[in-house]
Amino acid sequence: MTAAADKGGAGGTVGGPVTVELWPRSRPTARVTRLILGLGLYGVSEALMLAPAVGVDPWDVLHTGLAGLTGIPVGTVLILIGAVVLLLWIPLRQRPGLGTVANVVVIGGVVDLILGAMPVPHTLWLRWAVFLAGVLLNAVATGLYIGAGLGPGPRDGLTTALAARGHSIRVMRTGIELSVLVIGWLLGGDVGIGTVVYALAIGPLVHVTIPRLQLERTSAGTAGHAGHARRVAPAGQPVPAAEFVGPVEPTPVAVCAGAPSLI
Asked: Are 245 and 230 in contact (CB under 8 A)?
């Protein structure tokens, strides 16, 4: 399967299609384990940022706005919006990987589970402590999930697919994020200082966590010389045609210099 990947870095344009595996051929156990762990922790981090009600990232502003309007749990709204965004991939000819499909289901389910079990923090210092812990955990979860290299989240995939039409990744990402932020705010979503804190903090944090949690992948069966494995480049980096043996996924850092949107 193929998905458009950012070849130009933040603010660049998208290059040609790259392979996205529905099931990993190299190191499947390690990669699927890292994927599920990353998505699960991402859901926990989302709950930690949602519970204090000090502001959330733009997509969660939309999710909380819709949840308040409909009475549907916010994690379920997250799943439904993810599914709708995934449907938008069809006319854009963007194809999902295993990580894309798991992303839609796992994160929202974990969010509802954790929010239903954890006590709501009330004192101001505790609310901010919980929120900041969520931001840090979000960065670690991002590194784990992206490091598995099994496909972008539905929202990032939408961004890269639109940018593949020749537009700047930065412009596409900023336009989408601002649109969902405004719509979510009009619906009564949770906009606050935390929204700004997340936007400023998450980029530098994932800049650290993604390279350190990248899972190296090699394939021994596709070398130019028998017995030699070829390297698969880290996520989001171009691979010479002669060395391409596996998936290269867009990372949040490549998609936008600001905050990632994996979900």
From this structure: yes
